[in-house]
Amino acid sequence: MIKQEFCYSKLDETDLSMTFYSKQRTSPSKATLIYLHGGGLLYGTRDDLPEAYCELLVENDYNLLTVDYPLAPEVKLPTIYTYLTDAIDWFLQNHQTTLGLENSNYFLFGRSAGGFLSYLLSARYPRQEQKGLISFYGYYDLTSASFNQPSSYYNQFPKIAPLNAQALIRSKPIAEVSINERFSLYLSGRQFGNWLSYLVNTPSEKETFSLTDAELAELPPTFLAHSSADQDVPVESSRIANTKIANVTYEEVEKLPHDFDGDLTKNEGLQAYHALIQWLDKTLATT
Known about the structure:
Layout: E1 2-11, E2 14-22, E3 31-36, H1 51-59, E4 62-67, H2 77-94, E5 106-111, H3 113-124, E6 130-136, H4 162-166, H5 179-192, H6 205-208, H7 213-217, E7 222-227, H8 236-244, E8 248-253, H9 267-286
Parallel strand pairs: 3-4, 3-5, 5-6, 6-7, 7-8
Antiparallel strand pairs: 1-2, 2-4
InterPro entries: AB_hydrolase_3, AB_hydrolase_fold, GDXG_lipolytic_enzyme
Pfam families: Abhydrolase_3
Protein name: Alpha/beta hydrolase fold-3 domain-containing protein
């Protein structure tokens, strides 16, 4: 597997980069998965997808392009969204010259908050080159009650006062920070029900950045995966989307935590990625 790094934009002094995973090939690849990481939009790193899944996708002739985006609350959702449209444009403009690809077919792929961003971009920034949407335990509705009130799950943990959590906010934009460094900001936000205030400028923006039923119905072919026991993003998010998206495939696993594919000792994650590859092949064959 070949890994290359590219810078697609800058925000103040912060580079916004991408990692391109591909293989030495004699025949054209099928498509590129543009990947957006999770972390509640407050933390995370673009290269958080376990290597086993990266290799599986690449071996099955799918390239992977993992993308930085500026994190909240140093910037808010409108800025994050704008930079991600720049990332898509960069891919479309550079797929042939810089990446050496024969085609510009792509799928948006996100986990958790990255799933939310993938929903959003698929609905609001559609491109003919996009062949589908992949959301692992993502969401599309910021007005959901579970995100706007204290979380009973997160309140089992020692309380982190908002003022203590806010000490973790930087003075300049960032595009990468580890879960160890900044999880307490997310934890506090979920404990006190104010997590979304870090993402939006005004309360009305929660609605602005939520997909309508009409937008869900218009989404491209979609693959969803979620655990029935998700303690962070309620499984109802994907169950409801499964009823409202016209062309959808839904894989639900039982009794595993939110990021069920993170534990490589369990088979469910690998099974979900094998199902994803079958779906990718089928989707490309019918578009």
